[in-house]
Amino acid sequence: MGFDMGLVPSNPDGWGPPDVPAIPQSLGGGAAIPFAPFSRSDRLGRIADWTRNPAGPGAFAAASRDSVFDFTSADDSFVAGAEDSSFRLVDAKPPPRQPRFGPKWRFNQRPQLPQRQDEEVEARRRLAEKERARRDRHFQNNRSHHHPGFRGNQSSSSAKPSVDIQPDWTMREQIPFANFTKLSFSVTDQPEDLLSCGAVEFYDRAYDRVNPKAARRLERFKNRNFFKVTTTDDPVIRRLAEEDKATVFATDAILAALMCTPRSIQSWDIVVQRVGNKLFFDKRDGSQLDLLTVNETAQEQLPENKEDINSAHSLAVEATYINQNFSQQVLHREGEKVTFDEPNPFASEGEEAAPVGYRYRRWKLDDEISLVARCEVHAVNADPSGGRQFLTLNALNEFDPKITGVDWRQKLETQRGAVLATELKNNANKLARWTAQALLSGADMMKLGYVSRVHSRDHYNHSIFTVMGYKPRDFAAQINLNTANMWGIVKSIVDICMKFEEGKHVFVKDPAKPQVRIYEVPSDAFENDYVEEPLPEEEQVRPLADVDATAQEMDAAAEAEANGASAANGAEATAA
After folding, report:
1. Predicted model pTM
2. Residue 55 — pLDDT band, cuts 50, 70, 90?
3. Basic and acidic residues: which segments have biased composition (predicted)?
């Protein structure tokens, strides 16, 4: 037998082997070579296994050619199988520890399994979703239909009008608030001061340096009397009306309520009397206008139970009581006074009245109508240039930080803007009225005091945290109070009333809807509120605005509470 050299391919086109070498028939030349697809990330162990034996003698012929390239059989994964046989799944979780005993182990060991942590996270997430859904439902229920502060869920059953509507009253007009917001009127001429009465004391600048860390306790002034006299009971206004000085007469509190009508939520009423060609805007004795509202424009409603110290009525009495005492405490009570042309027209002989300056000012609305209003200033301050500045003094009160959402003790020093923004949201109507009164009186500065309860459940004792000063016009621009719109509301109401016949009418703010109704009432309506002769004691009705009596009751209650506590302590000591 000769030596077989095999097939030697020739390259007739050049030197070297051809580009595609010929494959011998023994190696499958001319036949399709099987190819196993693979990924580039796969590990290649071998290309062809020439040492592998077929599965049996009968299978050699069928697998003689393709078996060397077959990577799917069990023998092809011999090495992988050997590796798999040596591999075992290892649990990385530490073995459970044996229980130990002793106080140190019992208090220091706090096992937290991953499953327990996941359950707590899921529970907190579900709780947060429920709270968010509850807030969304509450917001939708309380969402305003005319401005953000209006509580649309108030119904006629829960909110009552400030005055009982009688069957014999005739409704003449019904004005939505949307009509008021579009009005505009400019009073071109400056107001004219017809007369000034009373006296004012100087403001104590030491209160400008008061802060929550060095708060001042609010004092009580039982001997000073405060007067809330309506228009027709003012002897000066009667005299000016007889002298035909104007055609419309009112007070700054009544005008401010009319000017800020679109911001009001709670019900209020104003009595309008037309006598000849003159109009008198009055308030009833014991009217809601004598009390200061608290959280009127807030989203959260206050309790309706009057016995609750955080109810709307209780907070209104408390706020009025605070406002009066604050206006007296920040004065130099033993110092010099600034007296006006005439003395206080409401104080009697020997009666100590709170120092207030009354300025009777006249505005010209048009060629035929002029308005006279009695405006108040509460203090005077020495101007650095040598002149004098008149001030108005008012106090905001905090009753429970959990309800308002802002704690004054923590925020007043570092975030005064946030505190003021919260008050503007919760008491938009009250702050707008104070600003309107300061603009009407021609005050150079308005001082706002921040007064809080010593304890959230103690409505007898309060502390002054700080006092801030603002220029009325700048503050009006800050709270978006448009003076042209204010005078436009007054002008439109005066024009409506001038079309009525002589008689008495009542403006009533609807307690549940953003609108004002005008009723024609009998001429003898509310006469019991204006009688000068005292009624029998059993027939007397205590007015809501009798804040002086309320202050005395609060003082008496506080003393009784203190005496009761001391008596209880003595009884316990005796028993012991």
Report:
1. 0.67
2. low
3. 116-134
